[in-house]
## 1
Amino acid sequence: MNTPDEELGSVVRFFLERHGFEQQAADVLRRALDEVIDGMRTGRWSVDALEKTEKTYIGTKVEILFKFDFELPDGERLDTRIQGVEVDIKCTVLKDWMIPKEAVGEICLLVRIDDSRSRFWIGLVRAGVSLLRTGVNRDEKASLSAEGKKAIRWVVEEGALPVNFLATLEPETRQKIMAGRSGQARIETLFRLVQGRIIPRVALETVARQKDPMKRVRDARKNLLAEGILVLGHQGADPQVVRSRELPVPKKGEIIALSAS
């Protein structure tokens, strides 16, 4: 039978030995944030725009997507089982994780996301009583002490999170884009003001705020050609045009706008 330390080591190795784990995890976390922000339906583009209860749901969404993408089964007592070991998944967009009573003494998979800096952390710790602060919140959850944080075994430390595209724009530029009265107007303003950069689908959905943002993109491609603006994707001759400018080529669902001259 494994000792607690052997169990923790086994779970850590599961992630360290998984090829491409960091990139896959980054994509999962980006998707979790984007699904909770729900820009297509709300027009929001930032975690800061979420209500407190919605921020709490980020943890649930991360758990759901993490288990799905990494094919992790449900646990009997905790969130999941990894290498036969029960593991609780805890996520924060702040700095502290709150450990519930049922996870005290158990292995916790700790996820921290800093969307403003496009960074994330994933680590594991056995959340013993000696590693927790003595105070608890109203839900009787406790946070890790300073010693507890030192005990974390990091799998990813300050990894690169896929960028929140709209958050990288200058506030004035973003305001001009989002001020358009229709999805078509907003999409066309986006292509006028932001050129030479890959625009991901989630940003197009947030700006268009319609079920078929690519219809708005196709219409913009025709409308903006008269203004000397090329709207290019991943098909046909588009990649060749983009490469000729020594710029990154869009993948499926991505768009880049360029001056025709």
## 2
Amino acid sequence: MPLKILADESVDYRIVKALRNSGYEILAVLENYQGFSDKDVLKVAKSKEALLVTEDKDFGEWVFAHKEKGVGVILLRYQLNELKQITDSLTNLLNKHGESLTQKFAVIKVKKIRIRELP
């Protein structure tokens, strides 16, 4: 089964386009679920069996403090002038780890990637 990705509203749309151009199946909250709460975005990610890519740190609270299960989250942390580098880092992470990111919380910075198992 191909890897599915749900891009939160916070994700720069140029990243969505770049991932699509790399062949990934991307659902974008901005296109299909605009205005959904974080909880509802997590429900969509689970129901679609998609990794959630976001720039919103609140999803860390959902998966760690609220112990939300059944979803993998990739949090992007970068400055606007690092957009190309973060997009490349994300694409490389997806190419290398793909579906193994399910049930994990990954934080991507331009020079560092941290992957944690979810409780």
